[in-house]
Amino acid sequence: MDHSTYADIELKIVWASEQARHTERHYYQSINFWRDFFPGTLGGRLIDAPDGEWVTESMPANDLIPVYADSNIMTLPKGAIQPIGKAKIRIAPQRGRFYPRRIIAGHAGITAEEFLPLRVLSVDEKDFQIDLNHPLAKHEIEVSLRVDGSRYTGKEERGGRCNDAVYEALISGIGIQKPLPQGADFYRQEGFYRVDEADDEIFYRQDRLINHIDPECSRQIAQIYARYIEPGIKVLDLMGGYESHLPDVDDVDVTGLGMNAREMEANPGLNRYVMHDLNRQTTLPFEADRFDITLCSLSIEYLIRPLEVMEEIVRVTRPGGRILVSFSDRWFPPKAIVIWSELHPFERLGMVLDYFLRTQGLKQFETETVRGLLRPQDDQYADRMLHSDPVFVVSAVVS
């Protein structure tokens, strides 16, 4: 093997929880075929595979991450919780939620520098039970790799850090969206307050004719939507605005529902729009079964009564139609629900999935994530951010 052979790699991890199918896509730049490695037979097969062709292997998670151990489930007194950060914040644990392990520094060999997550399984007046196992420790995982583009020659490799891309992806948050059988405590009323509780009409009266994510992130969302949007269908763009992140498909009838008329008038993807504040009135102004697909892009974090809105989305989407909710890691902090900023990005994915699971009339639940792509050079933040904004999507079919 030539020590100077490099490639950009797309990694795809597919796994299933009891409730949903999950797909994680992660891109890596400048992988060196001599220094870096992949599990099982994947590395050798990728070397021999034509560029762009997938190589796939299914394997137990314990081949990729630490083995599940019953000893990693333990009960601790609430007094074991350590304050974190300069502000000395002391977390009040909640069932089903994830927290950095350093909150129990001094117990189970955990140090104050450890950021890997733990999950809280239960809480009572004095104690709380935690799980230190990786969420996927008992799962079968399908791993796929392909060269994204073409291989190229860089400086001759002379050693250095070896990268295990699959392991690094698995410890970056994948699996945190897995639902807990007894449910997670996402629904405390105070979590759905906002910093700015003034009338939403005041906030959204200001025109924001801007892109809220970078072009690559928008393109990835459009590619996911393109799997389901075809000529002749009716689409509802919920909480819409200046940009709908739609694929380029002819003869698609798109209705926007939002709170700023000028933004929606400037959106070339809309055939028409309706002004409506979902936080004031959760009932949608449409008849039942009107739409083939309902989309909510980059806005789910602003809903203060999301379960009521989900029921309405199901009502106006025809049986066999699909609902897709996408989000990234950028939002307007004053108007986002408080809990949103408290959650790990994959925990946000788990909360949105929980919205879906709690809503009657849905089936075939899926989540998908896309991370690690390079930010376009012409993006306004290219000089400060190397990677494109991440993509998180939850979808289901109306039954």
Short description:
The chain is of the alpha/beta class and 399 residues long. It has 8 helices and 16 strands.
CATH architecture classification of the largest domain: 3-Layer(aba) Sandwich
Count of alpha/pi helices: 8
Report the sheet-strand fraction: 25-35%
Number of domains: 3
Low-confidence region ranges: none
The gyration radius over C-alpha positions equals 22 Å
**Topology as a string of helices (H) and strands (E):** EEHEEEEEEEHHHEEHEEHEHHEE
Report the mean per-residue pLDDT as an integer.
94
CATH class of the largest domain: Alpha Beta
CATH fold assignment of the largest domain: Rossmann fold
Give the arrangement of secondary structure elements:
Elements (H helix, E strand, L loop, with lengths): L4 E12 L3 E13 L9 H7 L6 E6 L12 E5 L20 E3 L16 E7 L3 E5 L8 E8 L4 E2 L11 H6 L29 H5 L10 H12 L7 E7 L12 E6 L2 H5 L6 E4 L15 E7 L8 H11 E11 L10 H5 L2 H13 L4 E10 L19 E8 L1
Parallel strand pairs: 2-15, 10-11, 10-13, 11-12, 13-14
Antiparallel strand pairs: 1-2, 1-8, 1-9, 3-8, 4-7, 5-6, 6-7, 14-16, 15-16
